[in-house]
Structure prediction request, 512 residues.
Amino acid sequence: MTVGIEMGLSMGPGEEPARLDLEELLATRLLVQGNSGSGKSHLLRRLLEQSAGAVQQVIIDPEGDFVTLAEAYGHVVVDGAHGEGDLQAIAARVRAHRVSVVLTLESLDMEAQMRAAAAFLGGLFEAERSHWHPVLVVVDEAQIFAPAAAGDVSDEARKASLGAMTNLMCRGRKRGLAGIIATQRLAKLAKNVAAEATNFLMGRTFLDIDMARAADLLGLDRRGAERFRDLSRGEFVALGPALSRRPLALRIGPVSTSARSGSPKLVPLPAPADADLLALILTRSAEDGTASWVPAPRTPPTPRASPADLLRELSAYRPEPAEAPVPLSAEDLRAGLDEVLRGIAADPDAGRQPVAVIYQDFLVRCRMRGLDGESLPLAAFRRRLGVARAGIDGQGAPADSDGRWQEAQKAAASLPDEVQGLFLLLARAALAGEPCPGDEALARAIGSRSPGRARRLLAYVETRGTIVCRMDFRGNRVIALPSLGCETGPGDPKAVLPGSAEPEMPGLFAAE
Prediction:
């Protein structure tokens, strides 16, 4: 369904009606710019009145100008003084029940306005997918909620408000939110918010930087930029797929409702009385009552700490002495370190990190468990990590009655770190007379998921004379370890590993 909104009359020959395609507007967003008094609020009111019966509307109103829509068009007025959590819940219910609302923020200071608007827009944005119906979200004085530079408000409030406005203009379309933002100056508005608008209505402006930016958005030359100074109140230049494919000057039509705060009008001054004017204003009258006026106490602003103050506080800080931990027995410490190392060996992502990085993770895990991880130095940790990786699919270290497993650990220590686990896995299989591990098992032993990398490292270990590989007539692989005087049984190189259950590996730290 195509709904055309008559915004007013074009200022060209014939003064034809200037229409806005509401369906296109929902998909492309709108930016209105003009100095104070140029008629931005009048334009927004015309748009809201003309589309009131066709689409749900949400107005973020910092000055309380649009609350008069409630009587004429049934909008619900929501006071921004509610808590942030309440505002988010209200916004979610607004989307669920498709109610048109005016969020009035006139009773709040600027920082509170930014927090309230961020919470309400966040509630609209985070609504359930089933409630993503089309909504016109009109934000008047958008430079308050998406400032181009930091002001007197806290960084937390500014970032929250700017993030909510960015979500509205950048990601709101898929959620049915069509942002319509109005600002006095484009230079005051954050660029990433203004850049997402595709439709523009540019009103009167006088500063060169604002005229140049407005002309650039509309594709006008320097002479066209001077035209913005000559626009009268309520006159705008329109461009965009929902308005006109070429810059079109138009005059906004009349509205049926009015703002509570109209333009200032000249009123005749009262005639001077015969009494002394000074005494008239300084003498208390009976209407004033007996209580004297006392100004409300102002809360002094919280002073911001300078970097020097923060550094001074940090250097003077002395933590309270913690209770000395109960020392663990050597057996309990060994069991705890064994469990921590087993968890690291079972982590598939640990294989992509250098040993030094894994060792730091090991120390952190030990501190979390109250263990002295530094009792295991880096060199011993590297060796134990290779043992752990070698035993990922087994039942721990083999029986070492003849001392050959200890000889295998010494031989592994002479190899590079990345192949120690692979060599120990082969040594354990050979000492136990088990079939040769497949490529996947070898890859896991070196902390990798690539069988190809495992085959390359296997060939590298063979070039050092530490192992000898051969293939039997059935295509199975047999690996001999000359230094240990044993070899594995025939094993399929393409064997698939069984389920990845955490192994039981007693005695990882039994021999140092």
About this structure: Residues 500-512 have pLDDT under 50 and may be disordered.
